[in-house]
Amino acid sequence: MPSIRHSYTVTVPEEPPAPAFPFIKQDARRKSPTMSRSMLVSTFVGLLINQAKNSKNAQGLVGLRNLGNTCFMNSILQCLSNTHDLRDYCLRNTHRTDLNNNCRAKAALMDEFAKLTQTIWTSASNDAISPSDFKMQIQKYAPRFVGYNQQDAQEFLRFLLDGLHNEVNRVTVKPRALVEDFEHLSEDEKGKRMWNKYLESEDSKVVDLFVGQLKSSLTCSECGFCSTVFDPFWDLSLPIAKTSGEVSLIDCLRLFTKEDVLDGNERPTCHRCKTRRKCTKKFTIQKFPKVLVLHLKRFSECRVRTSKLSTFVNFPLKELDLREFASENSVNAVYNLYAVSNHSGTSLGGHYTAYCRNPCTAEWYTYNDSRVSPMSSSQVCSSDAYVLFYECATSSRL
Ligand SMILES: [Zn+2]
Hints:
Its EC number is 3.4.19.12. By secondary structure, the chain is α+β, with helices and mostly antiparallel strands. The chain has helices at 26-31, 37-54, 71-81, 84-91, 94-101, 108-122, 132-141, 153-168, 187-199, 205-210, 249-257; strands spanning 212-220, 226-233, 236-238, 247-248, 260-262, 269-270, 275-276, 279-287, 291-296, 313-314, 320-321, 334-345, 350-357, 364-368, 371-374, 385-392.
């Protein structure tokens, strides 16, 4: 990674926003000892959201300092900061209620994440802030993030969401895994039962937002027997078709859900034939999440020599219709894009940035570590796009 020195200046769209709420400043907070920090923040949230809606000066336009190769982290943090339901969860301190309800004292990662989100959205100035306290917590949770090596943004997102989920999981005592026979049920009912079973042990705001359910169908080529498996997913890793030209996101999804033949050593055991048979396997989406994270597999999985595909993947900003990938007829399968984590450069060295649509103004901004600048929505789709954040159109507020 080339050493990138960023100036700590922030570009703002028009004139710099006036400090709308000077009382949130550190010194002011100390002068009002009767008001707790959480009270102050929750009182502030309503005002902030209203103010941001009515004002041309959108909040949340605060850069994050690069602590040394931490652009992968900054890029993902900005995408999550612009995930309005998660942002509101942090601003309202709802995570505290979830924590109190399950009597756990340790929630350092969620606390730091919420604190960082609150700082981004309540900061009176647009000066870049340091995510060092947050970094301390994520590396405690996942020691692979100790130090200042370049990391993969999608892997970081997985670790972070998993960490946040574990701390605010509404389930404190996980039920014993019982083997239940759902074979007599309809496919739809089976999917629902499997989903409820999942929620019995994994249930949090993070799951509410990001987790969907994938159905995998295995069909025997001899007897035609079809067995199905339902698995939760936190994101979908999409292969990119090898081509000299550009491909579309739908092409990637079609490749991901394409019928796959399992033969030779891969032959699974057919439940009806009771022997290993050549089978076909196919994925469909059983349950669409509110926030759909699509990861474009630009890096080859071979760890010895990684290479990067810089194929231009054309993706829509609005009305990504995924109904053709649904297991059943589904109405909630149309999505709008609100954030992209970009990777420029090669597999050996590169740089991460984020493009995010502000949830209050619907304007797009580039987040390049400390710098935040406005951009045209026509520039959002580029060959650097790496992780796409879509929200379900029916839950969109814009
Ligand atoms: Zn069979």
